[in-house]
Amino acid sequence: LVVDASEASGRPISETMFGIFIEEFNNAGAGGLWAELVSNRGFEAGGPNVPSNIDPWSIIGNESSLIVSTDRSSCFDRNKVALRMEVLCDSQGANSCPDDGVGIYNPGFWGMNIEKGKTYSVVLYVRSSGSINVSVSLTGSDGLQKLAAANIIASGSEVSNWKKFKVMLEAQGTNPNSRLQLTTTRKGFIWFDQVSVMPLDTYKGHGFRKDLVQMLEDLKPQFMRFPGGCFVEGAWLRNAFRWKETIGPWEERPGHFGDVWMYWTDDGLGYFEFLQLAEDLGTLPIWVFNNGISHNDEVDTASVLPFVQEALDGLEFARGNPNSTWGSLRAAMGHPEPFDLRYVGIGNEDCGKKNYRGNYLKFYTAIKRAYPDIKIISNCDGSSQKLDHPADLFDFHFYTDDAKIMSSMAHQFDHTSRSGPKAFVSEYAVTKGSLLAALGEAGFLIGLEKNSDVVEMASYAPLFSNDRRANFAAIVFNSSHLYGTPSYWMQSLFSESSGATIFNATLKTNSSTDQVEQLLASAISWKNSENENSYLRIKIVNLGTNIVNLKIVVDGLEPNSINLSESTKTVLTSTNVMDENSLNEPKKVIPNRSLLEKAGKDGEDV
Ligand code: AHR
Question: What residues does the Alpha-L-arabinofuranosidase C-terminal domain cover (predicted)?
């Protein structure tokens, strides 16, 4: 491998080359990144009509002690469904309640992770026909292990109308499979709504699960695309992500059923929170919004203006003056300063659809008029032919189950027009969790680095998956643990590439060309954060089955400019290319860093 590290060979890689894409998919947000422990906190999962769907809430008691139903008596106008409990048993007498009472419990998203010594803020809204004495407790999955408890007690007059209660519970024990219980031994009618359990200890105090965000921070993402994907489109427009329904006080958010990924979300992780997360990660948000097109229905271009206005309002919410109509809502949520929103994606994977081009142009014109600096991303692929409409970037997605095919995509942008919009590879993956998948993806990314004059951004998808969702992802988690798949660790080897300089790196052979054909390589250099030392990183991907011995020659450097004794090599490999990580074996395939065993001086073999 010959690397020409001379100034003449160096070309800049985009500052925003590698980032992340977060989609509400596989419970990435609800039950994942967003630290809320209660699932279906407003009992709204069946929609606004009653009877609604209270799943995963369950009943503690039987027909002779308790009747549970839903009605539309909530104090929240945008989510009227509340849970109604008729307690038939009493604290004493013939039909006395069990000692622990009757009521309801919520197991969260396949178990709540409750940790000893940590504090949990429990908020709930209650109304009753008389005085109440409700035990609010965090317990093990069988209800027997008591981890923390408090009683909320109020007179009938205090709770004849809805009243908010807040209790802080400090856990006395640890259980990753816990639940929240609301129980009573007092006869009468009682209503609950908007029940929340949030750990106090969240990333920057903004409600995100720390261990999951740490994995993102470690990737040093330069941008964050959100909130989808198909999640933005919806199978039907009525179920698409609509940002206005996801802002403001959490209690007032209606939540919605994501009908592409087929699960309910309370939208605790809403538009504001995504923007906040991007800011907290020090990365650029890229907002993808619905363009009047879902998987199954479309709004005609002639009628799309309300959608255009919704997008403009969303931009005002993110960037507007705190006194503006929508900017003032952002300020009221605690963020008077504008968010640094510079990119938007008009729709997702909609290019071939009947109204895409027409709708797109309406959005494009209106946004450029109001926000000329905002970069607009088209869904249409401009990698092999020029777009027939204006755009700053074009979106490119590629999934395959074949690592070799993914790696061959390294050449996808070799012939892309250098005068048109730049490419945003916002979704790519080999749809497996194996080392081989990661190798194929690494080969592809090497191709993107080499084409960084036309590829401006790239992000893997999907980023997260709850372990209960059978899917591949970069980061897999349950309530308390997580692991990076080989694809995650592969990305970490590219985290210095954004803003780096790429050099010509040429693989040469005298004998077996087969061996070289299975290799891909790139070389980059970058400076550390203090702008003091510069580093050279050579990445080599071997997708073949043979071990290849390589002589690496680096030309074009000043004599003694490389400190070979401190040079390291990082290897991502395993005994079998099909190896995967898992919750049981989270570190089976992870990068291994060591000093270079054999380092030559200038002119010697390395
Ligand atoms: O990453 C999962 C899905 O794949 C995304 O939602 C969509 O854009 C793509 O089809």
Answer: 426-606
